[in-house]
Amino acid sequence: MNVRYGSKTYTFHCPMTVRKLLKKLRVVPEGVIVAVNGNLVTSDHRIMLEDDVEIVRAISGGSKKQPAALFDCGTRPSLGNLSLDIRRDGGPDA
Amino acid sequence: MRCKLCSDRAVAEIPQHRMALCQPCYLDWFPSYTKKAIRKFGMLRRDERILVAVSGGKDSQALWRVLVDLGYQADGLVIDLGIDDDGQGAAPGEGYSAKSTDYVRQLAVDLDRPLWVVDLRTMIERTVPDVSRGSRPICSACGVVKRYVMNRVAFEGGYDCVATGHNLDDEVAALFGNVLSWDTYYLSKQSPLSVQRGDRLMKKIKPFCYFTERETAMYAFLGGIPYYHEECPNSVGATSILHKELLNQLEVAAHGSKRRFFDGYLRQRALFQGPDLGDEIPLAYCRRCRMPSPVEICGFCRMLGEVPMTQPGSLAAIRPDGAPEPRELSAVSAA
Fold first, then answer.
1. Looking at residue B282, what is its pLDDT?
2. Mean pLDDT of B191-210
3. Closest chain B residue to A29, measured at CA
4. Looking at chain B, which residue has its C-alpha nearest residue A63?
5. Could you give the dihedral angle defined by the CA atoms of residues B73, B79, B80 and B82, in that order, rounded to the nearest 10 degrees?
6. What does pLDDT average to over chain B?
7. How far is the C-alpha of B212 from the C-alpha of B194, rounded, in Å?
8. How would residue A81 be classed by pLDDT, with cut points 50, 70 and 90?
9. C-alpha angle B132/B107/B93, rounded to 5°?
10. What is the DSSP string of B182-246?
11. Shortest Cα distance from B113 to chain A (angstroms)?
């Protein structure tokens, strides 16, 4: 799935809920809305691989730089000072 | 997740109210909750003429739509501040301010309501970056300019009040900042309703004061309201954003925290009002522009220095069709 957030696009290779996606990206849910294939969804919505996801920042008055990344289930990429805990939904601890 | 009202599939979560709604129910709930806030704070009478300060962002665009849908006589005001995409002075029709203004024009057409367009370059022959240079930080200068223009257009344009799209996040971020510095003057003043003072410091209302930014964003999205997603280039790194992010983390951990903080403040605001704390400053009229001012020359005119100010009555040139009958600026009565 492709996820657009600000000026960056992220790619994930495993289905997951919106809640999980935001957690992976370390995005506070209260500060954004999430659209899947152009439709607003709730945090329990399950995103499939073919879905197109957009995270829209709701906080107005400023912006922050976002890192670009390609995500793969089961890997733990390190992007500069951004370390993400990524594992397959329901899978064993990495 | 199911809609709390009709059990259909929910699309909009509202954690502070511990509920989720489907699209039709959310689009019904949002204006009705706005109406509740208007009633709770006694913001408006049905016959009042409202000037909605619209920036092109989600909050003010949504506010204008909601007020019109609720049946109020709400006209728009947009100020082209002359800011380009890098935060510097822009040429006419270019940059951040021009793009934001285009979204407001589009909404005005959709709503079929009068829109006042104030171009700062025409009004004072300067942009906001020009004005701020050498005088004060740009966001501070921008605030002075916007408050002045909103109030002046509302007065001269014949309106009863100014409505702004400030939301709960704006209110609690400002409150948090004022508490951090224990600024008792501002702590005595913050309110969803500022009553009119004298004949020309107009009433100001914030009908979205109980909506989080996320809730207004959802309404704009679901309601198909056009808005400019980019933020002002000069606001990057603003302290208020840090405060909003901190408060959002608190909100996720304890839903309703922002609302409790705000409501608690409103109940206790009198603590900050008194002889030595938040006394209202007596108002006179600015000697140059004749708008309200606590001192001889108002902050706006002081900031402009020797730049010639638009003369009284000159707003007639930008008066949109359908706007109320104008007031005469030169006639001064006791404040």
1. 81
2. 95
3. B252
4. B236
5. -170
6. 90
7. 21
8. very low
9. 45
10. T-HHHHHH--SEE--BTTTB-EEE-TTTTS-HHHHHHHHHHTT-----PPPGGGTT-HHHHHHHH
11. 26
Q: How confident is the model at residue A74 (pLDDT cuts 50, 70, 90)?
A: very low
A67 φψ region: left (φ > 0), alpha (ψ -120 to 50), beta (else): beta
Tell me which residue in B57, B218, B251 faces A60 most closely, judged by beta carbons: B57
Lookup result for tokens 């005001």: B77
Q: How confident is the model at residue A77 (pLDDT cuts 50, 70, 90)?
A: very low
- Hey, is B255 helix, strand or coil? coil
Q: Provide the CB-side half-sphere exposure for B328 (13 A, CA).
A: 4
Contact B83, B120 (CB under 8 A): no
**What distance in Å separates the CA atoms of residue B13 and residue B283, rounded to the nearest whole number?**
45
> What phi, psi does B129 have (nearest 5°)?
-60, -35
ipTM of the modeled complex: 0.87
What is the per-residue pLDDT across A15-34, written as a single tens digit (0 to 9) for each? 999 999 999 999 999 999 99
pTM value? 0.88
Tell me if A79 sits within 8 A of A67, measured CB to CB: yes
Give dist(CA B297, CA B285) in Å, integer: 8
CB half-sphere exposure, A75, CA atoms < 13 A: 11
The CB-based long-range contact list for A28-32 (8 Å cut-off, 24+ gap) reads A28/B245, A28/B248, A28/B249, A28/B252, A29/B252, A30/B15, A30/B212, A30/B214, A30/B248, A30/B249, A30/B251, A30/B252, A31/A57, A31/A58, A31/A59, A31/B213, A31/B214, A31/B244, A31/B245, A31/B248, A32/A56, A32/A57, A32/A58, A32/B214
- B residues 205-234 lying closer than 8 A (beta carbon) to A: 212-214, 216-218, 221-222, 229, 231-232
Q: Closest residue of A to B258, CA-based? A: A30
For residue B166, the one-letter residue type is H
Q: CA–CA separation, B73 vs B195, rounded Å?
A: 19
SS3 B292: strand
Across all residues in chain A, what is the average pLDDT?
74
Sign of the dihedral defined by the CA atoms of residues B227, B231, B234, B239, in that order: positive
